[in-house]
Amino acid sequence: MTLKDKLLADMKEAMKGKEASKLELAVIRMVRSAIKNAEIEKKRDLEEEEIMDILAREVKIRQDAIDSIPDKQQESRQADIDRLKEEKKILQEYLPAPLSDPEIKEAAREAIASTGVSSPKEMGRVMGVLMPRLKGRADGNKVKKVVQEMLSGEESD
Do residues 50 and 25 make contact, with C-beta atoms less than 8 angstroms apart? Predict the structure, then answer.
């Protein structure tokens, strides 16, 4: 079953559901709309990887929205924060499980070894090899931090 098929099936199930499914239905409709818009733009059906990119982008948008709420407004905007977290959780169900820190470090070690990079100045080469492998399964900022630590010798296990 493709991601598009799973989204359609889950949308139908959410439509049959009661009040608890309303947010899930809204999120699935939004994602399906984003996928359809991308297909119209590209004038073809999207590959699974492209659909995962859209899902990952939507998760990131929600995380950025949560992070952008200032600390002093968090109490008054708790309902918004809770809704964004719930939307993010729904979206993450369609993505592969994220990699753990040790898995990211191991992938970074392999990328550093394969590129032969030893200086933080050449970090771009490592990231260029590493990010396509970890796409959709690890946060780019987290990967960047791990690679920086490894190349500057600050690695901690």
Answer: no
Q: In 3D, which of 86, 55, 84, 90 has the Cα closest to residue 68?
A: 84
Does 43 have pLDDT greater than 70? yes
CA distance 117 to 95: 31
- As a whole number, mean pLDDT of residues 85-104 equals 92
Amino acid at 55: L
Check: pTM over 0.90? Answer yes or no. Answer: no
Q: Report all structural domains of the chain as residue ranges with CATH numbers, in order of start.
A: 3-92 (1.10.1510.10), 101-152 (1.10.10.410)
pLDDT level of residue 79 (50, 70, 90 thresholds): very high
* Residue with more model confidence, 20 or 131: 131
Please tell me the number of Cα atoms within 13 Å of 77 on its side-chain side. 14
Give the chain's length. 157
Residue type present at position 56: A
- Rounded Cα–Cα distance for residues 35 and 52 (Å): 10
Alpha helices (runs of H) in the chain, residue ranges in sequence order: 3-16, 22-42, 48-68, 78-92, 101-115, 123-134, 140-152
Place of tokens 């470090």: 105
